[in-house]
Amino acid sequence: MERTLVLVKPDAVQRGLVGEILSRLERTGLKLVAMKMLRMDRGMAERHYAVHRDQPFFEGLVQFIISGPLIAAIYEGPNAVEVMRSVMGVTDPTRADPGTIRADLAQDTRHNLVHGSDSVENAEMEISLFFNPEEVVG
Ligand code: IDP
Ligand code: MG
Q1: CA-to-CA distance for 130 and 5, rounded, in angstroms?
Q2: In this structure, which residue's CA is closest to atom 15 in ligand 1?
Q3: What is the C-alpha to C-alpha distance for residues 130 and 110, in angstroms, rounded to an integer?
Q4: Quick check: 138 pLDDT over 90?
C-alpha cells in the first residue's frame, strides 16, 4: 500500500489553519496512519530539502520551515502520493487550481501551507526522517 509524508507547515499553524487543512486531507479518503507535532531543526530541514540545496530559495525555505512548529503525518492508500499533491495544488498558489489548499488559502510560493512527497521513493525517505517504524499505528 502506498504511503506519503505530509507536512502542515509553520505558516498553517501560526494562521490557525491546521483543522481546515487536516479536514481537507481527510476528505481524500486516504488513511491516516501516523501524526505528530514538532519543530524541525536546521539539520533535519537541510536533509528533508536536500534536493533543493543549490536553489536560490533554499536558505529562505530552511529559515521558514524551522521558524515554528509543524504537523507531520503519514497517509496511506491507493496513489497516496498523487492524491495528496492534487488536493494541495501546485507550489505557487497563484497558479494552483481553485479548490486546492494552496489556491484557496496560501499566501505565496514560500508560505504555501503544506508539503506532500513527490514520489514513492522520496516518501519512504521522508517518512524515515520524521517517524520511527513503531510510531506508524495504522
Ligand atoms: P512542492 O512543495 O510543491 O513539492 P518544491 O519545488 O519541492 O515544491 O519546493 C519545496 C518548497 O520550497 C515549496 O513548497 C516552497 O515552500 C519553497 N519554494 C519552492 N520554490 C520557491 C521559490 O521560487 N521561492 C520561494 N520558495 C520556494
Ligand atoms: Mg517538493
Answers
A1: 9
A2: 110
A3: 21
A4: no
* E-assigned strand segments in 21-130: 31-38, 70-76, 114-116
> For residue 65, which atom of ligand 1 is closest to its CA?
16
Determine contact, residues 30/75, Cβ cutoff 8 Å: yes
Mean predicted lDDT score pLDDT of the chain: 98
Mean predicted confidence (pLDDT) in 50-61: 98
The best mutation among 63, 112, 118, 126 to test binding of ligand 1, ranked by most ligand atoms within 8 Å of the C-beta, falls on 112
Alpha-carbon distance values, 92 to 15, 53, 113 (Å)? 18, 19, 11
Tell which CATH architecture fits domain 2-133.
2-Layer Sandwich (3.30)
User: Distance (Å, rounded) from C-alpha 137 to C-alpha 134?
Assistant: 7
The CA–CA distances, whole Å, from 1 to 15, 25, 31, 138 equal 33, 18, 11, 12
Give which of 63, 95, 3, 2 is closest to 103, Cα–Cα: 95
Q: Is 111 annotated as catalytic?
A: no
Amino acid letter, 48: H
